[in-house]
Write a structure and sequence with these properties.
CATH architecture of one domain: Orthogonal Bundle
Order of helices and strands: HHHHHHHHHHHHHH
Shape: globular
Strand content: under 5%
Number of strands: 0
């Protein structure tokens, strides 16, 4: 069944090999070509969702989804299923549960998310502890490794990027209105619950794929840092979106290429986040300087 599902995904290998024509020695290796293509597909999605995550104040939400990767992978290994499918499926389930608890509980959003977060992490640890040796297979998801992305994951990223594009075109204004005032949005005919659940599901899928790139420990940074940098540089909501895209793409590509240099030799995911944080620091200094000038 999994082979049939993989066959339905688009073949991205020709496009990945085309990137090998760039005049960079590190891109001669096939795994580097696939990693670069994965970054080019993933970075715009994390940037777009990161802007909404900041607007909705949902950083803790994305962190909870990222940590659910352990349970999703553990279930896949336990039942001899491909984690490429079990991890996103479980992540979407957790995301929808968090949104349901957030909408239906009288508790604060952080408290509701914290309860589901604790349950998911405990469930994942319980599943891992039942099977000796499974913990060793979880290390790659803890730290991430974009260099190990496979053709099936590239195809899934391409489909997800198309879905993300359609979602942004159809729902960006609705999501902004919901973030500002959900009651007013409902009064104007926006189906608030539908868009919130759709956003939670899409965010969960993107976070799960981002775990493969930078790991559970850094996945929230991949969403938050480019969007926070864009807030320093942009003057409008549209400007923030495009600045986040630019910062995410630059950080992803520069971090990947730097990590491949023999004189550096650092983990690709960590290097990507460090480049993004350097961009954030520069933007913060620039914004502070502009503020002093206006004063």
């Amino acid at each position: 069944m999994l082979e049939h599902l993989s066959a339905l995904l688009p073949d991205m290998l020709p496009l990945a090999r085309a990137l090998g024509r760039l005049p960079l020695d590190c891109l001669h290796a096939g795994f580097m070509q696939q990693a670069l293509l994965a970054i080019l597909l993933l970075a715009p999605m994390t940037a777009a969702l990161g802007v909404s995550v900041i607007t909705f104040r949902m950083a803790f939400f994305s962190d909870a989804i990222g940590h659910s990767a352990f349970a999703g992978v553990a279930l896949g290994l336990l039942f001899s299923l491909d984690p490429l499918f079990t991890m996103p499926a479980f992540g979407v389930l957790v995301g929808l549960c968090i949104m349901a608890v957030r909408r239906g509980s009288l508790l604060s959003a952080d408290t509701s998310i914290g309860i589901v977060f604790s349950a998911v992490v405990a469930f994942g640890l319980a599943v891992v502890s039942r099977t000796p040796g499974m913990a060793r297979n979880m290390t790659q998801f803890l730290y991430g490794d974009i260099l190990t992305v496979n053709p099936a994951e590239l195809g899934f990223l391409a489909v997800l990027a198309l879905a993300m594009l359609l979602f942004v075109l159809a729902g960006s204004n609705r999501l902004l209105l919901i973030a500002l005032n959900p009651v007013m949005a409902g009064a104007q005919g926006v189906r608030v619950a539908l868009w919130q659940y759709a956003f939670a599901a899409l965010l969960s899928l993107v976070v799960m794929m981002a775990v493969r790139a930078v790991g559970v420990l850094l996945v929230t940074a991949l969403l938050i840092v480019p969007a926070a940098t864009a807030r320093h540089l942009a003057r409008t909501a549209g400007g923030m979106f495009w600045w986040a895209q630019a910062v995410a793409l630059f950080s992803g590509v520069a971090g990947l290429l730097l990590s491949a240099q023999s004189w550096l030799g650092t983990a690709s995911g960590a290097t990507i986040i460090l480049v993004a944080c350097a961009c954030f620091l520069c933007s913060a200094l620039w914004a502070r300087r502009q503020g002093h000038r206006r004063n």
